[in-house]
């Protein structure tokens, strides 16, 4: 059965990458959720999509130039009514929220534009602290970082993000040492899923928002759809 992972939480209905969005995703029946992480000036792992603060908060400048204390003062409601005072969470805050649930958390390391030194180690430390090793999938578009993660951990599952059709991505993923392919919707193919499964790899597809596309991903046997609309996906998949 294809799993439903909420993209940045239930981001169609709540401010993306915030605790209300993650809570709502679980209420809407998601099996888990995807989130994005960046590193603060004082090496804390925070959950926010952009390298800069303007789009999602009332702050300015680079995440990397601010301390966690500074960032905690910002409003992350992104102008959405009813969510005033919502804060940027740390990765630990999110893991705290899902203690006592069975939610799977896909942590996307946003380290393609910014070469955050030590992000991999810090993420693994938070995973260990909250005993989330077996409920997390770490993904990135930065495959050097995935290879580095592979050298640091045997236990945490890894997924290779890509957004263009690749030649034999299942063979590449095996060489890279990851456990899953994370293709964009337009790069997800029945043949890729079949070969990936033969190699023991999962295929988790993003971002799948239309009912017809969700159905198509179920038909090609994708392991998870990452969606802004977890309630819709739950309804379609059952
Ligand atoms: O992890 C899938 C997806 O989130 C990748 O793109 O920009 O939404 O983080 P983006
Ligand atoms: Mg993402």
CATH architecture descriptor: Alpha-Beta Barrel
Q: Number of helix segments? A: 9
Relative helix content: 25-40%
Average predicted confidence as pLDDT: 98
Poorly predicted segments: none
Shape category:
globular
Ligand identities: SN-glycerol-3-phosphate, magnesium ion
CATH homologous superfamily assignment:
Phosphatidylinositol (PI) phosphodiesterase
Q: What name does the CATH topology carry? A: TIM Barrel
Measure the end-to-end span: 9 Å
The helix-strand sequence is EHEEHHEHEHEHEHEHEH
- Order of strands, widest sheet: 1-2-4-5-6-7-8-9
Structural class: alpha/beta
Structure description:
By secondary structure, the chain is of the alpha/beta class. It has one domain: TIM Barrel (Alpha-Beta Barrel), CATH 3.20.20.190. The protein contains nine helices and nine strands. The chain has an eight-stranded parallel barrel with strand order 1-2-4-5-6-7-8-9, surrounded by six helices. Strand 4 (104-109), helix 4 (119-129) and strand 5 (136-140) form a beta-alpha-beta unit. Helix 8 (211-219) packs across helix 9 (230-237). The longest helix is centred in the middle third of the chain and has 11 residues, at 119-129. It is globular. The N and C termini lie close together (9 Å). The site of magnesium ion has 3 residues, from strand 2.
Task: Give the SSE map.
Elements: E1 3-7, H1 19-27, E2 32-39, E3 45-47, H2 68-72, H3 91-98, E4 104-109, H4 119-129, E5 136-140, H5 143-152, E6 157-162, H6 169-176, E7 180-183, H7 190-198, E8 202-205, H8 211-219, E9 224-227, H9 230-237
Parallel strand pairs: 1-2, 1-9, 2-4, 4-5, 5-6, 6-7, 7-8, 8-9
Antiparallel strand pairs: 2-3
Helix pairs in contact: 8-9
The chain binds SN-glycerol-3-phosphate and magnesium ion.
């Amino acid at each position: 059965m294809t799993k439903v992972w909420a993209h940045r939480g239930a981001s169609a209905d709540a401010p993306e990458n915030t605790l209300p969005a993650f809570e709502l995703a679980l209420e809407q029946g998601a099996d888990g959720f995807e989130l994005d992480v960046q590193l603060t000036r004082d090496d804390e792992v925070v959950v926010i999509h952009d390298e800069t603060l303007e789009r999602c908060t009332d702050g300015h400048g680079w995440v990397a130039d601010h301390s966690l204390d500074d960032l905690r003062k910002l409003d992350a409601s992104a102008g959405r009514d009813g969510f005033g005072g919502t804060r940027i969470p740390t990765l630990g805050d999110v893991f705290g929220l899902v203690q006592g649930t069975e939610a799977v958390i896909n942590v996307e390391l946003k380290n393609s534009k910014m070469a955050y030194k030590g992000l991999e180690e810090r993420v693994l430390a938070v995973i260990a602290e909250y005993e989330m090793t077996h409920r997390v999938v770490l993904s990135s578009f930065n495959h050097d970082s995935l290879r580095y993660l592979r050298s640091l951990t045997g236990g945490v599952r890894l997924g290779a993000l890509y957004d263009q059709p690749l030649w034999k991505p299942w063979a590449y993923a095996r060489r890279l040492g990851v456990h899953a392919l994370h293709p964009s919707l337009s790069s997800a193919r029945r043949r890729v899923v079949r070969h990936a499964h033969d190699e023991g790899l999962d295929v988790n597809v993003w971002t799948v928002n239309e009912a017809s596309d969700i159905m198509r991903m179920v038909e090609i046997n994708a392991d998870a759809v990452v969606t802004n609309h977890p309630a819709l996906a739950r309804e379609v998949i059952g």
